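Narrative summary of target 7.
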Amino acid sequence: MLEIDVLLDKLEAELRRVIIERRLDNPLMIGIRTGGVWIAEIMHQRLKINDPLGLLDISFYRDDFSQIGVHPNVKPSQLPRQMEGRDIILIDDVFYTGRTIRAALNEIFDYGRPDQVVLAVLIERNGRQIPLSPDCVGTRTTLNAHQRIKLTGPDSLAIHLQNMDAVA
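Modeled conformation, tokenized:
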């Protein structure tokens, strides 16, 4: 479907542009588990970010938590104690409804008020439900309501288009 290396190169170029335009000072990069962490690990290395990569598991911040319960693979977030006044680059694999990002921002703000947050995603797809949008995107795509994008990895990243009617 989509060539992962091309998307990573485009996302890196977009991030470099935004870092300069918005004058990000020693940004902290945070990846959202799991696919966002895989993308963030690559961007963290390519952009030579100084601070260790932050890892965010938004499971307890989801607005559907009471409906779906705890996922068996919930892992603790690993964020620095001091987020106050920091420039943050938040990375996820696929931007869809915006609900994951809303949950991620809620958790980040529980650690302190950052100066600014840049949102970077590998793929933005249609279906937004919350008025948020990424600052940096590898690609944008339009899918039918029954289709989903799945990133697999981390050793060999690949993008798969899933037909949810066939899965159900």
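The chain has a mean pLDDT of 90.
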